[in-house]
């Protein structure tokens, strides 16, 4: 059990404390207390509440509701396995209309602590996208179940945000309206939403493009909007289905940096599907390599590169010997899988 | 210095040539600087200019032809009127109207019928099309009717409508409504089924409810198709209203032509035809303008 004080410097390197709706509590209080518009009695009451909160927070965290707000930004640091994403022994069989069936996934199990970044890699047809669609709640698995924070996934929900490859933006809305879509649908207060959208526009580097229609943006910029739109909803898990797949190599590299930065700043759990070995290695704190027919987990890795990517330059990391070694290892693994399939069909 | 100039003049492309004047560009007979440097032009649709000059030539020659054949008496006035006859008839129509009804009212009543028909067709047709795209019950129920009615030209229904509803306003607007209805149902249905599943998925995982997905994703996504439907319905209804008025009507451009024919007033017939053409063209242009203004994202998803 951990104890925190409000305003205390957290030991986390890549997360700051957040309330459930994503605002930084300490910053928020600072703004209220320093504003000349805040009446004096409100400042006094606020200070009293904070003082009592300081006292309350010495009580074990889960016992007070205030601490829940703080724990939300903090969990995952400890690898608390009650909060996180559990894919529990999933199998997926598609029955074909003409008889016969396709075994898309077989006994896939994985456990993702909150705040982890997992990349999923595999040759085409290994069920990566099916897996993501099941986690998102767009498909129901034939066997097994998915749990997020101990709740079974039964359909799409705002807790599991999704970033698609491309063309999933709403082209009839401008950038700002696209990003605020989630909060607007959920009926969040307008002022709060607007502030959040401005903040996100700056984070993804689209500060001057808020009023542009999305179809006027380049592919890379559109994916920035897609990331911001997902983050605006403050989901527990972000599912990314080849989010950078349609971008050119240079833009792709820049966007990888942005994904790392967002991961660091928000502390979100991320599942990233990709068919680029380099991207999977560079971004994944954990990496799952899947094998096809039936789709299953082939190997799991824990990688240092994402953590290093927060400080070192991406080129440096991608050129380092251990990165290259891992890349070649995984490439030849996938190569073997492909050859097995080809050999299987040839005989 | 001299080397530079030699190199420049030696280039085969016309990059150093003067830009064509604005007039030449407007007339559509000069290539822009980009097109001029293309070597493959035959088969490249973007290299075909508007050729507005030739359009002007066409119009002017037709008018001259008209003048020549009527002024010289090569064609009897009963088959094709002279400018003078048309001009005189036009002043008379403006002053006295046609059969005690002002010319404006003839035009207005036709346009009104079209707008009413398309309006009711859209009001009923769009929800039905949406229902067909979203529910298998609605699709199953309506599909036979829609597919059966689709190839039937509205004109073939005129006799039935006269039998059922007589020759008053209700009959005409009902006919136009029916003509617009099936066009709108089909347009709305294809607009709904054309929505990309990733957009729907995105909306649901952003926390939208079914109704919100319908209102905020499916409806705007279907708008371009719906607009195309309205445009087509306008065109079809304009053609249908004239034909319906030819058969039985007191007022309207179509009836004006038909009655004038009975009195051998060829000049009135020609004026009616010109009015029909101009209004049809105007409706199309107006719809295109509206479309560009209302749905700027069209074709850019």
**CATH homologous superfamily designation of the largest domain in chain B:** MetI-like
CATH secondary-structure class of the largest domain in chain B: Mainly Alpha
Strand portion of chain B? under 5%
> Helical stretch count of chain B?
13
The average pLDDT value of chain A, as a whole number, equals 79
Which structural class best describes the helix and strand composition of chain B?
mainly alpha
Structural class of chain A: alpha/beta
Number of helices of chain A: 13
Q: What's the helical proportion of residues of chain B?
A: over 70%
Computed over alpha carbons, the radius of gyration of chain B is 27 Å
Query: What's the order of the H and E elements of chain A?
Result: HHHEEEHEEEHHHHEHEHEEHHH
Roughly what is the average pLDDT of chain B, rounded to an integer?
Answer: 88
Mind telling me the C-alpha Rg of chain A?
A: 22 Å
How far is the first residue's CA from the last residue's CA of chain A? 59 Å
What are the segments of chain A in which pLDDT stays under 50 over at least 5 consecutive residues?
Answer: 1-23, 59-81
CA-based shape of chain B: flat
- Name the helicity range of chain A: 40-55%
Strand content of chain A: 15-25%
Provide key terms for this protein.
heterodimer, A: 347 residues, alpha/beta, six-stranded mixed sheet, four-stranded antiparallel sheet, 42% helix, disordered N terminus, B: 301 residues, mainly alpha, MetI-like fold, 2 domains, flat
Explain this structure.
The complex is a heterodimer of chains A (347) and B (301). Chain A is globular and about 75 Å long. The model of chain A is unreliable at 1-23 and 59-81 (pLDDT under 50). Chain A has a domain at 1-74. In chain A, the strands form 2 sheets. Chain A has a 6-stranded mixed beta sheet with strand order 6-7-8-3-9-10, with helices on both faces. Chain A is built from 13 helices and 10 strands. In chain A, helix 8 (219-232) packs parallel to helix 9 (249-266) and helix 10 (277-283) packs across helix 13. Chain A is of the alpha/beta class. With 301 residues, chain B is mainly alpha-helical. Chain B folds into 2 domains: 2-47, no CATH class; 103-294, MetI-like (MetI-like fold, Orthogonal Bundle), CATH 1.10.3720. Chain B contains 13 helices and no strands. In chain B, helix 6 runs antiparallel to helix 11 (210-247). The radius of gyration of chain B is 27 Å and the shape is flat. Chain B starts with a helix and ends in a 7-residue tail after the last helix. Chain A binds chain B through residues 136-138, 155-158, 160-162, 164-165, 167-168, 170-172, 181-182, 185-186, 213, 215, 229-230, 233, 235, 239, and chain B through 196, 198-199, 201-209, 212, 216-217, 220-221, 223, 295-297, 300-301.
